[in-house]
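Continuing the batch. This is chain 6 of the set; chains 1 through 5 are on the previous pages. Same settings as before, nothing changed between runs. Recording input and output for traceability.
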Amino acid sequence: MSPTLTPRPRWSSSAIVSVVLLALLALAPLYAYSTSNPFVVTLITRIVIFAIAATSLNLILGYGGLVSFGHALFLGLGVYAAGIMGFHGIDNGWLQLLVTLLACGIVGLVTGSIALRTSGISFIMITLAFAQMFYFLFVSLSQYGGDDGLRLASGSNFSGLLLTESTTLYFTSFTVLCLSLYLCHRLMHSRFGVVVRASKINGPRMKALGYSTFRYRLAIYVISAALCGVAGLLYANLSQFASPSYMSWTTSGELIVMIMLGGIGTLFGPLFGALTMILTEEWLKELTEHWMIIFGPLIVIVITTSRLGLMGMLEALDQRRGLPVANTNQEAS
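Output for chain 6:
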């Protein structure tokens, strides 16, 4: 009797689109230099960095169900870690990275310990309040430019790799993005990630089963803060400027919109959201100086007509076709 052959699972459309997008991003610098258009590298680098920041927020928003309206605080801390250390003549990138991780980790631990004791609108307002506190703190630091901001004295130097060089910064950011996506995938498919996702669905039941949901949520909050800080460090080298505006509530709102456009709780959703939002913004800026009048309603239309986001729609289509999807929220439910 011949053994039954198990059919190989086909690649889902969401997986194919994600792989193609990563391949195109990897080849973006070649296109830029072949067309003598270095602005493309700067633009794509910005997209990649914001995708990293949105991925970090997706860890707590998409998988943990924690709506943070102050997540840009950690982006700003990463920016100022590079800016202030460069101001004092410290351009060692590894040391700047260590300070970024420590600062974001400690601030995330303290603010998270307080904010996570609440839920709903209270959690949103507390995270917003902490971000605004740090915003006004850096505004008051006149030594480091105050409200006018601080120009980056020197780029982060990682053992000879200077991040102020556009190509070096791009491939470093792209590598960090790929590692972030891999970390997110492994984390959410681990026992730790299952508890985090299950706590989002039914926290009281998880407590009844003996899990300390507060500790799990605090841990993912700190991890998210540290990852967002790394994005801030990269962004400081891109803009070569540190400003309190980077940790304002408007930046946090932009990260949330990116996740909603791409797909909440999907692995590649933040990347698709950052790509869609920034490219649309640049396109509208070329059409009119009143681009925000058009951009705002467009976001409202997209989000209200498709709550799943771009990746969510692809994964819903894959489910109908009986193909595996990467949406861990659906797996958890």
